[in-house]
Design brief:
By secondary structure, the chain is an alpha/beta fold. It contains 10 helices and 10 strands.
């Protein structure tokens, strides 16, 4: 998708409200009480490049995501990670299957979905691979404040939340700078600050270490660890397992649009097939707990 299209998606995500569905509705319709998300038999196809038939980008994907879990989804380029992220986030409808959020369907047109979509958009934040695509403010502070302002918060609440988010991300001293002047790692942290300022409980990060140098990776990992320790639900899409696998509670491998493995990181790596395009980081590290660029 063109950069402008991603920017529009990000603007839509930053406009997400914090309205919630009634607990009685959640109880009445819950399909998987212990799951934050239930992904059921998701399929997505596109016209084949040859002009004949279709290309199946996602093929019968099913798994659950528990609240507070740090889930890592790994796969080579073209495995379907980003497409799956967009479907989970409610930004692209699947051709088949359903995504349940707190037990309520996101895409079933036969039921009233407004409350479910509003709750999803209030609780879920996206950090895209292209950090520039998420810049919407003229200054760092304006960018961090964009989400809370569009949720209708009082000015004092917007300022407090934005300043805290920028402080947590180490960007408060650059509050008056143009976001375009930030480094790649700083732009990534600014995107996370925008999500944090809105109080999102679930964060999806698409290739969070892309184009970052070693200090940038370390700072991003520190933020991920802090989010995990604060009880946030994290969905991290990456092929760079050696940088962050120690933080994962669970690992899923995608290959050619299919889930090939889904279990604890150790069990998945023990069953790893070289054809899946994912390298076992234990070749260079003593154990999974060592698979992190954090030094403490």
């Amino acid at each position: 998708m063109l950069k402008g299209g991603l920017s529009r998606l990000v603007c839509e995500q930053k406009h997400f409200s914090f309205l919630t569905a009634h607990c009685s509705l959640l109880t009445a319709h819950c399909s998987s009480p212990c799951s934050l998300f239930s992904i059921k038999n998701i399929t997505r196809t596109f016209p084949a490049s040859s002009g004949q038939g279709v290309f199946t980008a996602l093929d019968d994907i099913s798994f659950d995501i528990a609240e507070g879990q740090c889930l890592m989804i790994a796969g080579s380029n073209g495995s379907g990670k980003t497409l799956l992220m967009r479907i989970i986030a409610g930004l692209m409808e699947p051709d088949g299957g359903e995504v349940f959020f707190h037990g309520l369907p996101l895409y079933d047109k036969k039921v009233a979905r407004n409350a479910t979509i509003k709750r999803l958009r209030g609780e879920l934040g996206l950090v895209l691979q292209d950090a520039d695509a998420q810049i919407v403010g003229g200054t760092v502070m304006e960018d961090a404040a964009f989400g809370p302002e569009n949720l209708g918060w009082e000015a004092s609440e917007v300022r407090k939340a934005s300043e805290k988010a920028l402080t947590d991300m180490g960007l408060i001293e650059k509050r008056d700078n143009s976001p375009r002047q930030l480094s790649g790692g700083e732009k990534r942290r600014l995107a996370i600050a925008g999500v944090a300022a809105m109080g999102c409980n679930t964060v999806i990060m698409d290739e969070p270490f892309a184009n970052l140098d070693w200090p940038g990776v370390v700072k991003t990992l520190g933020i991920i660890r802090n989010l995990k320790n604060s009880g946030k639900t994290l969905i991290i899409l990456t092929h760079e397992l050696e940088k962050a696998l120690a933080l994962a509670d669970r690992l899923i491998i995608l290959h050619k649009g299919k889930v090939r493995a889904d279990s604890s990181p150790a069990e998945v790596l023990d069953s790893l097939d070289p054809c899946w395009g994912v390298r076992d980081p234990r070749k260079n590290y003593a154990s999974i707990k060592d698979c992190s660029w954090l030094e403490d």
